[in-house]
Design goal:
The chain has helices at residues 42-49, 64-67, 90-95, 103-112, 128-140, 158-175, 186-192, and strands at 4-13, 16-26, 31-35, 57-62, 76-78, 146-150, 178-183, 195-198. The chain has 199 residues and is of the alpha/beta class. It has a five-stranded parallel sheet with strand order 5-6-7-3-8, sandwiched between helices. Helix 6 links the parallel strand 6 and strand 7 (178-183). Bound molecules: adenosine-5'-triphosphate.
């Protein structure tokens, strides 16, 4: 089977139907972009696949050879990191991903995203792109085989956006991480994804 198989997913909020019979496969190490206009239900889809929202119809199967039931929910990277704790340093923001993380694991993730030299800074001392790289490092230390990215670079300037798109592709390739990215931006989907799925 594929890494993740979504079959006939349907989801409504009251009378509002967002997802109807939606199916999707994600293969190991694959980068899949889900595209659609604002409000169509992209974040809702991500929350369901990521195990945060369990109230849906349909089935989602996670390859038991890979996950063995322990890897869900998956790490998320959201648009611009309000998710960083402003009073903690870069390395401590990564550390909150897991109690048993070693300093070596944290350092390795920070090096992967080019932030090791900035590890003692606070979020207020970082650019938007650097904050997103902290979020990526925090997702990396989870050592998940899947990462979920929700409009991750929408608030960045075009130059920083394309640098981070390339970084995410490199991380996916070098570490074998499947990426599911939701975006309303076709150029972002085309720049990053092996496959684009329209909603
Ligand atoms: N918890 C909720 N309760 C009720 N309605 C909700 C809830 N979450 C989402 N919705 C509804 O679902 C719609 C789609 O939300 P969602 O965030 O999934 O869309 P999206 O495609 O990611 O949009 P955007 O690109 O603007 O983030 C919203 O407009 C809202 O009406």
């Amino acid at each position: 089977m594929k890494l993740i198989e979504v079959r006939n997913l349907s989801k409504s909020f009251g009378k509002e139907t967002l997802l109807k019979d939606f199916s999707l496969d994600i293969g190991e190490g694959e980068i899949v972009a889900v595209m659609g206009p604002s409000g169509i239900g992209k974040s809702t889809l991500l929350n369901i696949i990521g195990g945060l929202d369990k109230d849906f119809e349909g089935t989602i199967s996670y390859d038991p050879k890979v996950f063995d039931g322990i890897d869900v929910p998956f790490p998320f990277v959201f648009q611009e990191s309000e998710s960083l704790l402003p009073w903690k340093t870069v390395e401590d923001n990564v550390r909150i991903a897991g109690k048993s993380l070693t300093q070596e694991e944290i350092d390795e993730a920070l090096k992967s995203v080019g932030l090791y030299d900035h590890r003692r800074k606070k979020p207020s001392e970082l650019s938007g792109g650097m904050k997103q790289r902290v979020s990526l490092a925090r997702a990396l230390v989870c050592r998940s085989r899947v990462m979920l990215l929700d409009e991750p670079f929408a608030s960045l300037d075009p130059d920083m956006r394309s640098r981070l798109q390339e970084l995410v592709r490199d991380l996916s390739r070098s570490k074998g991480i499947a990426m599911l990215i939701v975006t309303h931006d076709r150029s972002e989907a085309e720049a990053m994804a092996d496959r684009i799925v329209a909603m």
